[in-house]
Amino acid sequence: MVEHIPSFEKLVNELNKLPSIGPKTAQRLGYHILRSPQNYVSNLREALQQVAQRVRQCSKCFCYTEEPDLCHYCTDSSRDQHQICIVEDPEDIAPIDASRAFRGIYHVLHGTIAPLEGRGPNDIKVRELIERIDMGLNNPDLKINEVILALDADLEGDTTVLYLTKALQNKDTLISRIAHGVPIGGDIDYIDKRTLGRALENRVSL
Ligand SMILES: [Zn+2]
After folding, report:
1. SS3 label, residue 187
2. Contact 86, 107 (CB under 8 A)
3. Are 151 and 88 in contact (CB under 8 A)?
4. Three-state DSSP class for 175?
5. How confident is the model at residue 3 (pLDDT cuts 50, 70, 90)?
């Protein structure tokens, strides 16, 4: 049926490009939009337009923002401006911030180093990170005392951690990586070997 309605086919094709949306789900969403009242469709169109036009990357940490220059994390004077948490994607910031265990500032890499996919340090925001840290070497207000690497515990995350640890050596800053291990409420006999191995490596003395 979709083939005979070109505008509907176009909508379904666009929805199908979204992550985790297969052809069937795209068609279902398309029909849902088709049946929706006109004001819902207008609101959806307006939201899509606004997000594309207004949201940009913060010029300092590269998270998403609607502010003209710096995001609200970078301008929040109650945050420790000398402690920086490195994340892969902008969406990683919200859960880390919600944990309330970190009250510093962020730096978004927009990806990881993945040689198998042809992605090197120049393809992500590594140079910008090194520049930020270098700027603090001669300016106490911008001095970064600690870099916390909050990257995934997979091959790309490990490769990126290795690269950054080397690149940030001799920058007069502590470098740490978030611990990986047993989740709260987790049962040791249900945890996979690699996670348990990491938990043992990252053990803390009591
Ligand atoms: Zn920012």
Report:
1. coil
2. yes
3. yes
4. strand
5. low
Query: From CA 68, how far away is CA 76, in angstroms rounded?
Result: 15
The CA 56 to ligand 1 mean position distance, Å, reads: 11
Asked if residue 102 lies in contact with residue 95, where contact means CB atoms within 8 angstroms, the answer is no
At residue 183 the predicted structure's pLDDT band, cuts being 50, 70 and 90, is confident
Question: 124-142, pLDDT tens digit by residue?
Answer: 999 999 999 999 998 999 9
Ligand 1 centroid to residue 57 C-alpha, Å: 8
List all residues 6 or more positions away from 124 whose beta carbon is below 8 Å from its beta carbon. 109, 110, 111, 112, 113, 160
Residue 54's pLDDT is what?
97
C-alpha 153 – ligand 1 centre gap (Å):
25
Q: What is the pLDDT of residues 84-127, one digit of tens each?
A: 999 999 999 999 999 999 999 999 999 999 999 999 999 999 99
> If you measure from the C-alpha of residue 65 to the centroid of ligand 1, how many angstroms do you get, rounded to a whole number?
8
Spacing, Cα 89 to ligand 1 middle (Å): 13
**The tokens of 201 are what?**
């490596």
**Pairwise CA distance, residues 46 & 137, whole Å:** 45
Q: How far is the CA of 108 from the centre of ligand 1 (A)?
A: 9
Kindly report, residue by residue over 167-182, the tens digit of the pLDDT: 999 999 999 999 988 8
Measure 41 CA to ligand 1 centroid, in angstroms. Answer: 33
